[in-house]
Amino acid sequence: MMEAHNAMLRSSRQLIALACLTLLAAHAQAQDLVHKAPPQIGTTVLTNGVIHTISGETVQGGIAFADGRIIAIGSSQEMAQVGAQNAPQPIVRIDLEGRHVFPGMIAANSVLGLMEVGAVRATIDVAEVGNVSPEVRASVGVNSDSTLIPVTRSSGVLTALVLPSGGAIPGRASVMRLEGWTWEDMTVVDDAGLVIAWPRVRPITAWWMQKSEEEQLKEAKENMRAITEAFDAADAYLAARASDPSVDLDLRWEAMGAALRGEKPVFIQAQEMEQIESAVSFARERGLKAVLIGGRDAALCSDLLRSADVGVILTGSHRMPRRRDTAYDSPFTLAARLESAGVRWCLATGGGTFQTPHLRNLPDHAGTCVAYGLSPEAALRSITLSPAELLGVGAELGSLDAGKRATLIVTNGDVLEIASDVEMAFIDGRAVDLQNKQTALAEKYREKYRQLGLIP
Fold it and tell me: Which domains does the chain have, with CATH numbers?
């Protein structure tokens, strides 16, 4: 008996040790070994380049920034005078030799930092328990050492909207800079807006759906009821607190206050026409400042969206048509159709756990839209200034203007061209290291082939 008991104990210890090693391995895979950028010292002046301001004209010349803010944009002659006008010392001058400067791109739909490997549950932290949890903030869960952050950054994406998921009201989104030692360092806007996963009005009949139509409709009704009851409860709570401050504090309903007062947007995840119409109707009735995330059928509702002044975050152009009778290029032309219709919109990528590693492809999504009718100017705006405006940070990010944050990239060509490389990046004036796991692996195998004599 004693031997059997000891054998069971040894087996249990071995299982626990194996589980711990698995968790440690998952954590090690999520470890970013790139050094964080130190604060900017003095003034940085980039000269002899092409400055794409996005908000105005393209400037042949340079840009200067200090204390993390842009202080001047102008000709090369004007940039030569920076330093004689009380600019902070020392002054670092970089000759771009004709390279291009763009604002850092903004990924307006992501779970970046909340997941690492989609197939490894221990690396996923996108959702909390419960169907209604508006008190949740995405920012506090962001892993600043995620290896996906420097990979995304190397393509020129320097800011991201990170959203919680799971449930009808999963929490509040956060705008994060893709650099920093901690989540506090990375946070631009802690509470960027409330997230609502709008229920599907039409059941899914695809081969992969395991729930019956009746089950799907029942779940949709339950989620719709949960959303409505949550907003009713929050309205009642805030009214009670306004009339009697001694009413007990409720963090859930307190967290919805900014959205209910119209101070923050409500990010409503909706793709289909019926979803969009229902969500916009709800937002109008409640006086909410709505921004849709998804928008696959947004062009079918363009008049409604324009009249209600509802913005749309399109979740990518690299996808298949939804229906058999839809034109093959409908995902590619959607951006151009919304632009022609006068709808406020921006371009993102799919934000699910299995799509987060591909945020680096954001400029390629925009380039595809150009190939299918969107102007290059509108495409650039859709991944810089337009998302900044929809996320409420347009006064700080998204364009190159004096006074804004010096969050920008330097490329050797048009950023919408897949062959162009990002050669330098600055976040709030700090020079960011563009090395990452993928560049390290590329160099490793270049060295292998050098040793084999296959490349010089």
Answer: 29-104+398-456 (2.30.40.10), 109-397 (3.20.20.140)
